[in-house]
Write a structure and sequence with these properties.
Arc Repressor Mutant, subunit A, Ribosomal Protein S5, domain 2, six-stranded mixed beta sheet, alpha+beta, 696 residues, 5 domains, 29% strand, 16 helices, elongated
C-alpha cells in the first residue's frame, strides 16, 4: 500500500514515500527533501552466513551523475567505482546504525542509497542517512532503532541546521550528529578551530532536532512497519563459558592479557587457546565457536579490570599517554618527512609539493567542489600488525583515516595566494596498536612544517576510549586507547585541534549511545592530551614551519599579466609557451585572471622564463635595451627573436657604425646581440638598432 508522509525540517519539506517503489526489498523509503531524491532500501538474507564471527553489514551510497545532469567521462560512459565522498558517506551511515543491530545477528544486510536528483539546497548525503534509518526501521530486519541524523553548519558564529551545499563548504563547521531517543550515537565533524564549549552546544542542538525526526519515524513505523523476523542466534553457549572458566581461571586470563607488549599478549592468548582446543577436541560444536568464546572471555576480563579496578592492560594510569617520540627529515631528497611514535603505533609521513596545476580534479555531485589542493593519503600494510596478505590498494578504512587527518589539517593551511602549491601528504603505517589516524595527524603536521609549508598553527590529535557498566553513571574514560582497549571498549572518540580549538572529530561507538557527561568528558580529556603531545613531543622536534621549502622541492615565482595578453604568451596551439618551457625546463601555469606561476628547481632558469614572459606581454618602448637572437637575414636587414613568438627587425643601416654592403658581413644566423628600441617608424612598425646601444 502506497503511503506518503511529510514533515517540516529546517524550513524545507521532507517527504517519505513508502510502498511506491522497490516493494520486494525488506524495507524501502523513497526520500524527497526539496528537489533532492534518494531511494533507500534495506535487505537481509534469509539465513546467517556460515563460518563468520561478525555481523556482515554492507552500506552503499551510489552517486548517479544524471542526478546533476552530467554524463560520466571515460570510454564506457558508466559510473565507475565509488568516489571518496561516496565511501565517506557510507561510513557515516554505517557507524551509528551498526551497533543497533543484534550482536548475535549473522544474516547479510545491505543498506543501499541511490542518489537520483540533487537540489543544492538539500544535501543528498543527509537525505541518504535519514533514508537508511527509515528503511531499516520499517523493515522486518531486527533493529533497535529508530535513529536520526542532523547536520549543523556555522557562519559568523550562528548555527545553521541542515545547511545548503554552499553553506557547508563556506562555513566554519561541518558537523553530523546521529541520535537515538535518549542518546548521541555518532559524531563526525570538521571545524575551523571551534572552541570545545561551542562544539558541545552544536552537538546537542543537532540532538534536539534528531528527536523531532525520530517522532516522525515512529509515526511511519506505527502505520507501515513490519514485524521483526526471528533469526538464528550465533551467541556463544553459556555452558562453553562455564567450561572454559573451569580450565582457565579468571586470574590466569588476567595474567595473559595484562602486558604492555602486543606480541606477548597475542602469544599468551594463543597458548591458552591451544590448551582449550585440546580439552574440547571431541566436541566439534564447541570447537566451531571456541575462537569467539576466548575473545569474549578476554573482553570481559579486560572490561572488568578497567571498570572496577581502573587497571589498564599495559599498566598505565587512566589519563596516561603512551611513550612519545618524534623526528623529522628521516627520508632524504623528499620535500618533507616526519615520524611520530606513540607506544606501538608508528607513522612516517612524507610531504610533496607541486604546482597548483596538479590539484586533484573531482567529478562528483557537488558543483561547489571541483578540485582539491591538499590531499592526505593513508596506507595500512599488513606488516604493521604482524600479518601477511597481499596489498590490493586502499580499502574504506584507509580512505576514511586519510580523510580524517586531511580534515584535521585543512583549517591551518595557508591560502593559495600565500603559498601557491598543491600539497600531498602520505602517511605510511610502520606499526599499529591503536589510533593510527591520530598519529597520522601529528606526523603530517610535522611533515608539513619540515617541508616549509607555512601552516598557521600546530595540530595534534588523540583518541579517548570508554568502558561502561550497568548504569549511565558507571563509566571510565581512557586517554590514548591502544588496540585492545579499542576492540573491547565501547567507544573510539578521536579529536584533533590546535591550542585554540577543534579541527576534526570522529566518534565510533559499540553501544546504544552516550550521555552528555561522557561526551563532554571525552572532549575535555582529548584537549588536555593533545596539548600535552604538542608541548612535550612535537614542539621539541620542530616548533614552527621552516622559512623556505626544501632543496629538492620546486620553487615558484608568481607574476601577473594583462588577461588580454594570455593568448600572446600561450601562442597558437601552445607553441609560444611550450618554447619557453623547452628553453628553461620550468612548469608554467596561467589562470584566466592573468596569474602566472613559474615552477622549477633552477632559480636562473625560472628568472629567465619570467623575463621572456615579460618581454612577450610588454610593449617595446623607445630606449629599452633587449637581447635578441638572429633568426632571419634579408637584404634590407635582420630579424631578431627576443622571446618565443616575439620578433623585431634591425635595418641594415642600424647594424654597424660604419657602412656595410651586406648584412652577412656582420651578422650570421644564431648570433645573440644587444639592441636598443628606436620607437616606431613611419609605417608604425617598431625598429631596433645595434649600433646605437650604449657601451655601459
Amino acid at each position: 500500500m502506497y503511503k506518503s508522509y511529510t514533515m517540516e525540517l529546517a524550513g524545507r519539506t521532507l517527504r517519505v514515500d513508502v510502498g511506491r517503489v522497490a516493494a520486494q526489498a525488506n524495507g524501502a523509503a523513497f526520500m524527497h527533501y526539496g528537489d533532492t531524491v534518494v531511494l533507500s532500501t534495506a535487505t537481509a538474507s534469509d539465513k546467517p552466513r556460515d563460518g563468520i564471527d561478525f555481523f556482515p553489514l554492507s552500506v552503499e551510497y551510489e552517486e548517479k551523475l544524471y542526478s546533476v545532469g552530467k554524463i560520466p567521462g571515460g570510454f564506457n560512459k558508466r559510473e565507475g567505482k565509488a568516489s571518496e565522498n561516496a565511501i565517506l558517506t557510507s561510513r557515516v551511515i554505517d557507524r551509528p546504525m551498526r551497533p543497533l543491530f543484534p550482536k548475535d545477528y549473522r544474516n547479510d544486510v545491505t543498506l543501499n542509497n541511490m542518489v537520483m536528483s540533487v537540489d543544492p539546497t538539500c544535501r543528498p548525503e543527509l537525505v541518504a542517512m535519514l533514508g537508511a534509518a527509515i528503511a531499516t526501521s520499517i523493515s522486518d530486519i531486527p533493529f533497535a532503532g529508530p535513529c536520526a541524523m542532523t547536520q549543523v553548519g556555522m557562519i559568523d558564529g550562528e548555527f545553521i541546521i541542515n545547511p545548503t551545499q554552499e553553506q557547508w563548504k563556506k562555513g566554519d563547521l561541518n558537523l553530523t550528529v546521529a541520535s537515538t531517543r535518549e542518546k548521541v550515537i555518532m559524531i563526525e565533524a570538521g571545524a575551523n578551530e571551534i572552541p570545545e564549549a561551542k562544539m558541545i552546544e552544536a552537538i546537542y542542538k543537532a540532538h534536539e532536532v534528531n528527536q523531532t525526526i525520530i517522532k516522525f519515524i515512529d509515526e511511519i513505523v506505527a502505520e507501515v512497519g513490519k514485524e521483526k523476523h526471528a533469526y538464528t542466534s550465533c551467541a556463544v553457549p553459556e555452558e562453553l563459558f562455564a567450561a572454559i572458566k573451569e580450565i582457565i581461571p579468571q586470574e590466569e586470563m588476567e595474567k595473559a592479557v595484562f602486558t604492555d607488549d602486543k606480541q606477548t599478549r597475542e602469544e599468551n592468548i594463543r597458548v591458552l587457546t591451544e590448551k582449550l582446543e585440546e580439552a574440547f577436541a571431541e566436541n566439534e560444536e564447541w570447537l566451531a565457536v571456541l575462537g569467539e568464546a576466548v575473545y569474549q572471555y578476554e573482553k570481559k576480563t579486560v572490561r572488568k579490570m578497567i571498570l572496577k579496578d581502573h587497571k589498564r592492560p599495559d599498566g598505565r594510569e587512566i589519563t596516561q599517554i603512551r611513550p612519545l617520540a618524534a623526528e623529522v627529515d628521516i627520508i632524504p631528497r623528499v620535500h618533507g618527512s616526519a615520524m611520530f611514535t606513540r607506544g606501538q603505533t608508528q607513522i612516517c609521513d612524507v610531504c610533496t609539493l607541486a604546482p597548483l596545476s596538479e590539484q586533484q580534479k573531482l567529478d562528483g555531485l557537488d558543483e561547489h567542489e571541483v578540485s582539491k589542493r591538499y590531499m592526505h593519503h593513508y596506507n595500512f600494510p599488513s606488516y604493521s600488525v604482524g600479518e601477511t596478505k597481499p596489498s590490493r590498494g586502499p580499502g574504506r578504512r584507509e580512505i576514511g583515516h586519510g580523510a580524517l587527518a586531511e580534515r584535521a589539517l585543512v583549517p591551518v593551511l595557508p591560502s593559495e595566494e600565500e603559498f601557491p602549491y598543491t600539497i600531498r601528504c602520505v602517511s605510511e603505517t610502520f606499526e599499529s596498536n591503536g589510533s593510527t589516524s591520530m598519529a597520522s595527524t601529528c606526523a603530517s603536521c610535522m611533515s608539513l612544517m619540515a617541508a616549509g609549508v607555512p601552516i598557521k598553527k600546530m595540530v595534534a590529535g588523540i583518541s579517548c576510549g570508554l568502558v561502561t557498566g550497568e548504569t549511565d553513571d558507571d563509566f571510565v574514560l581512557l586517554t590514548d586507547i591502544q588496540g585492545l582497549e579499542d576492540f573491547f571498549g565501547d567507544m573510539d572518540f578521536k579529536v584533533t585541534g590546535t591550542t585554540d580549538g577543534i579541527t576534526a572529530i570522529q566518534m565510533d561507538i559499540k553501544i546504544h549511545g552516550l550521555t552528555r557527561p561522557i561526551v563532554e568528558g571525552a572532549i575535555a580529556r582529548c584537549r588536555e592530551a593533545r596539548l600535552f603531545i604538542m608541548d612535550n613531543c612535537m614542539k621539541p622536534c620542530i616548533a614552527e614551519p621552516r622559512k623556505e621549502v626544501g632543496e629538492y622541492a620546486p620553487k615558484i615565482i608568481q607574476m601577473s599579466i594583462d588577461p588580454q595578453k594570455i593568448g600572446d604568451v600561450v601562442g597558437q596551439r601552445g607553441k609560444t609557451i611550450n618554447a619557453i618551457i623547452e628553453q628553461t625546463g620550468v612548469k608554467i601555469d596561467i589562470t584566466d585572471d592573468g596569474s602566472v606561476s613559474i615552477c622549477g628547481t633552477d632559480k636562473a632558469m625560472m628568472d629567465k622564463a619570467k623575463e621572456l614572459i615579460n618581454i612577450i606581454v610588454s610593449e617595446f618602448e623607445e630606449g629599452q635595451v633587449y637581447v635578441g637572437k638572429v633568426v632571419s637575414i634579408k637584404e634590407f636587414g635582420a630579424f631578431l627573436e627576443f622571446a618565443p613568438g616575439k620578433e623585431g627587425m634591425v635595418h641594415i643601416s642600424k647594424i654597424a657604425k660604419e657602412r656595410i654592403n651586406h648584412v652577412e658581413d656582420v651578422l650570421t644566423l644564431g648570433d645573440v646581440v644587444k639592441v636598443v628600441c628606436l620607437g616606431k617608424d613611419k609605417m608604425g612598425r617598431i625598429s631596433f638598432s645595434i649600433k646605437d646601444v650604449k657601451e655601459d
